[in-house]
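Weekly modeling sync, notes
Attendees: S.R. (lead), two postdocs, one rotation student

Agenda item 3: backlog of single-chain predictions. S.R. asked that every request posted to the team notebook include the full sequence so nobody has to chase files. The rotation student volunteered to paste the first one in as an example of the format we agreed on. Action items at the bottom.

Example entry:
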Amino acid sequence: MSSQNNPHINAKSIPLSERRWLKLARPVIIVVALIATWQALVIMTGAPKYMLPPPADVWNTLISRHDVLFDHARYTIAETVIGLFAGAVLGTLAAIPMALFSPVRFWLMPILLVSQAIPFFALAPLLVLWLGFGLASKIAMAALIIFFPVTVAFFDGLARTETGWLDLARTMGASRWRLLTHIRLPAALPAFASGFRVATAVAPIGAVIGEWVGSSHGLGYLMLHANARVQIDMVFACLLILCAFSITQYFIVDRILRAALPWQPDSLKPAR
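Predicted structure, as returned to the notebook:
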């Protein structure tokens, strides 16, 4: 087979140094392209600044109001990170008994499905009423959004453990606990990692929704008040910080999971 018909050979034919430079330059190229598209939209639509501010105005706001922005950002970041790990722990504690005990699965699965039918935005006022205007209600909101994808992914991984492995372990006299800790959990961790990656991407949504409903700090609170004052450049600045934080958090979690789970399959990598 010729190298022109094999994409893997073409990829490998690129020198290693060039591939590294391309990988490093990719985020810069994407950011520049997005900013150029944004500026082109401003010019082509002729939208006023109170509807669609140009990138330069948003950058100036980021610089001139950085103290206010990052003071509020630290609250949102704290709420998101704590909510992320709280939701992951709750999801893990729900998935394991569901996989091990059919009565637990029989009664708990319908409750999980019903919980997803309730709009999270409708729960936010209740959480603020019950837990107050502080961090607790925002952490709870983030944890609720994260809980379901982690639970479902981890449960699916536990339920789909290779039956041949389990049968072999049983013939060797493995107890139910050893089956869980030595076979089912390691086999299900890649599925848990997939659910945790999804949760990482959506975690800030819960914190921001909670701040919209009732808060005195955070980027959601700042966005709400800036929008009421038609300070759309400030709203965009908050959105950019949220995007940067979400992307950074996702890649940090992804790197940690890849290092911690070297046995997880990666079908996107070319075959060697």
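Discussion: group reviewed the output briefly. Residues 46 and 206 are 34 Å apart (CA to CA).
Action items: rotation student to repeat for the remaining queue; S.R. to check formatting next week.
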